[in-house]
Amino acid sequence: MNAISAAAARTFPALLRRVTYVAPGVLALDFEAEDGGELPPFEPGSHLDVHLPDGTVRQYSLCGDPADRTTYRIAVRDVKGGRASRFVHRGELRPGVVVTLGAPRNNFAFEPAARYLFVAGGIGITPLLPMMRAATRAGTPWTLLLCAPRSAEAPFIREARALGGEVSVHASEEGTRLDVAGRLRDAPADTLLYCCGPERLMLAVEEATAHWPEGSVRFEWFTARSRPEGEVSGTFEVECVRSGLTLAVPPERSVLAVLNDAGLAVPCSCEQGVCGTCEVAVLEGEVDHRDSILSASERAANATMMTCVSRAASPRLVLDL
Ligand code: FES
């Protein structure tokens, strides 16, 4: 997990250079620096904020080559009612337009391993592509299991195959749905698994690997995890030691909203617990972690919380604000 970072708030203008068809309903967008210079560096697993013309902000994984400092590539899926879909797939965001981007951040760090297993659902392949490229460059064996409704809809499949690992496509509507538990049962013990895709796939991988050593399975969530039905949370207090404020957080409001209403200006982006922008240090109290970023040990350490979704499991939280 990144340290709480001022970089989260950094933005810069970038030129949308190209829009390329990838697969049905998926377009790739290539951005360059507005002045033609180098872009800030990124690592495999990084994502960035894209500020859409209506002022909303969406996060996308960088799926290009980190060694190419001139281009950022992201992929946007056509989602019914999605804001980015409207701008990208309906042609409102065209090549030549200048867009505000946030500096890349990484909550899905690529780490050295003896072998990698990448499990992706559809556009969930995007953060994994730079990892496959890095693994190939390092001479480390890797396998990709890519799931899609139909094999023709598997995004970036040609690019993944060209990277030299073992690639298999699992198409649910063609009778080759991935048997997650069966496929993961025999994975070698030194495997590091990275997974990104829809919740159903991620939960299946999580369940099948529940007994794997901590840290050997990494997930990147694009959207918030579902919460248990009927879950309730009472009012609790947050004490902000540096500003001397104590605030009540009612059940229907987030910690983030309460802090920002009090003028504390906590930065935020996704408001779904998936990007890490609103992370705040916790000095006392027990957090009810509801984000999709922190690992089990980071949750247990209770040192930080994502204020957009996480709440208190104790009557009071003391925050370093
Ligand atoms: S704003 Fe993205 S995790 Fe809170």
Task: Give a quick rundown of the structure.
Keywords: 2Fe-2S, Flavoprotein, Iron, Iron-sulfur, Metal-binding, Oxidoreductase. The protein has seven helices and 18 strands.
Describe this structure in words.
- Residues 9-111 form the FAD-binding FR-type domain.
- Pfam families: Fer2.
- Residues 236-321 form the 2Fe-2S ferredoxin-type domain.
- It comes from Muricoccus nepalensis.
- Keywords: 2Fe-2S, Flavoprotein, Iron, Iron-sulfur, Metal-binding, Oxidoreductase.
- This protein is α/β, with parallel strands linked by helices and 321 residues long.
- It has 3 domains: 6-102, Translation factors (Elongation Factor Tu (Ef-tu), domain 3, Beta Barrel), CATH 2.40.30.10; 115-220, Nucleotide-binding domain of ferredoxin-NADP reductase (FNR) module (Rossmann fold), CATH 3.40.50.80; 236-319, Beta-grasp domain (Ubiquitin-like (UB roll)).
- 16% of the residues lie in helices and 31% in strands.
- It has 7 helices and 18 strands.
- It has helices at 83-89, 129-138, 157-162, 180-185, 199-208, 255-261, 296-301; strands at 11-23, 26-33, 47-51, 57-61, 72-77, 98-102, 115-121, 142-148, 166-171, 191-196, 217-220, 236-240, 245-249, 279-284, 287-288, 304-306, 311-312, 316-319.
- A 6-stranded antiparallel sheet has the order 4-3-6-1-2-5. The chain has a 5-stranded parallel sheet with strand order 9-8-7-10-11, sandwiched between helices.
- A hairpin with a 2-residue loop joins strand 1 and strand 2 (26-33).
- The protein is globular.
- The chain starts with 10 loop residues before the first strand and ends with a strand.
- Bound molecules: FE2/S2 (inorganic) cluster.
- FE2/S2 (inorganic) cluster is lined by residues 268-271, 273-278, 291, 306, 308.
